[in-house]
Specification:
This protein is α+β, with helices and mostly antiparallel strands. It folds into 3 domains: about 100 residues, Alpha-Beta Plaits, CATH 3.30.70.1050; about 100 residues, Chitinase A, domain 3; about 130 residues, no CATH class. About 40% of the residues lie in helices and about 20% in strands. The protein is built from 10 helices and 11 strands. Strands 6, 7, 8, 9 and 10 form a 5-stranded antiparallel sheet that branches. A hairpin with a 2-residue loop joins strand 7 and strand 8. Helix 7 packs across helix 9.
């Protein structure tokens, strides 16, 4: 086999030429691997001679597998590919075959300054306010919903148990109707000022609520539409919060009193904030190093990475019973904007990875384990730069 590699800019052409014997051996290996798939009268599965299978099914029946076998066995892994190569082949005059692989390569990185940089350290300030906010969230999670007094008027943070039916221009629309729906007032779960218009209602009352759908609403027919919702308030539930005291501390922790629980929370929140600050400082250092480097990244690399990120996001949402459209609505944005944000993030991540790989190669920090390789790089960069 004769192999020639030609590189130009971010592309490479790999030409591999095999003589007649090498090609015939590859076809024979493909025959041995696939013979059992083809039926020939008078022979048990896998026992028919190669020539008889080729006569019955076509002379090139094993050609594709033979080409792939030669390519996979001889291409090598010394090129940093962006995508799978485009493969062409031609037969030679002596009965051999020439494979031509056209490859898109990762771009070369021109490293800038990546040592002796100074990064401002992220301050860690954890105090009583943070502890109290944590306790409040814990208290909210332990809240009980109880029926409001008979004369209670609906207010923020109350749970309204409602029926509603929405219409646009007098026509009810799909998805605009529900019964006994529990809506927390002030949660901004519904569009526009729907929740605000319910404040002050009493249980058993009915009211028409008028809202305008946002211009980027996922359902195109409802974008910018003015809608009327017929709302009936069946019940009002209010939150009953437990007191934050020694009894509460015993119920939610291993401590017998609130004082010891708070002290432990302060320590743990400080440790957590310190770790987060360290990660943030590392990120600032990496971003500064990447900003100093120059690299012309092909659009295909960014597209591939963004596509993978979006696919992972969709898969995660589906596992939770949600969709990208519903997620966009929850965030108050559009699927198109989410995709654009992912492409922007992909561009940053691809550059960061290329720059870090270039440093790893230059400083000989490579390791078979990718995580260990990254850990070695992080240690190296933190030692060679100042975070203060």
């Amino acid at each position: 086999m004769d192999k020639k590699v030609t590189k130009k800019n971010n592309a490479a052409t790999v030409v591999m030429t095999f003589n007649a014997q090498e090609w015939n051996d590859a076809v024979d290996r493909a025959y041995q691997k696939n013979a059992s798939k083809y039926k020939v009268a008078g022979f048990r599965a896998g026992k028919a001679p190669r020539k008889m299978i080729e006569q019955q099914y076509g002379a090139g029946i094993f050609m594709e597998d033979a080409v792939q076998d030669l390519f996979a066995s001889n291409f090598g892994n010394d090129l940093k590919l962006i995508d799978y190569p485009h493969l062409d082949f031609d037969f030679t005059a002596d009965g051999g075959i020439k494979l031509t692989a056209t490859c898109a390569l990762e771009p070369e990185v021109t490293l800038g300054k990546y040592t002796d940089l100074t990064i401002k350290k992220t301050a860690v300030n954890v105090g009583d306010k943070d502890v109290n906010e944590y306790l409040t969230r814990l208290q909210q999670s332990r809240a009980k919903q109880v029926a409001a007094p008979q004369d209670h008027a609906l207010a923020n943070s109350d749970i309204a148990v409602i029926d509603f039916k929405g219409s646009v221009d007098g026509k009810y629309f799909e998805g605009g109707t529900a019964q006994n729906y529990e809506l927390e007032i002030g949660s901004h779960s519904f569009i526009d000022n729907f929740e605000d218009q319910l404040i002050g209602m009493a249980a058993g009352a009915s009211r028409d609520v008028f809202v305008t759908f946002p211009k980027e609403y996922p359902v195109k027919e409802l974008q910018n539409a003015k809608a009327k919702f017929e709302v009936t308030l069946h019940n009002i539930l209010v939150k009953q919060l437990p007191a934050i005291d020694d009894t509460f501390a015993k119920e939610v922790s291993e401590f017998d009193n609130l004082k010891d629980f708070k002290a432990d929370l302060l320590q743990k929140l400080t440790e957590q904030a310190t770790k987060q600050a360290e990660y943030a400082d590392e990120e600032k250092l990496f971003e500064a190093i990447a900003a100093n480097a120059k690299v012309d990244i092909p659009d295909q690399m960014i597209h591939n990475h963004a596509h993978a990120m979006i696919h992972d996001m969709e898969h995660q949402l589906q596992s939770q019973g949600a969709s990208m459209e519903a997620y966009a609505q929850y965030l108050g944005t559009t699927v198109e904007k989410i995709h654009a944000e992912q492409h922007e993030l992909a561009a940053k991540q691809v550059k960061m990875r290329l720059v870090m790989d270039a440093i790893i190669e230059k400083e000989k920090l490579s390791d078979k384990d990718r995580q260990k390789q990254f850990d070695n790089l992080t240690i190296f960069l933190k030692r060679r730069n100042k975070i203060c």
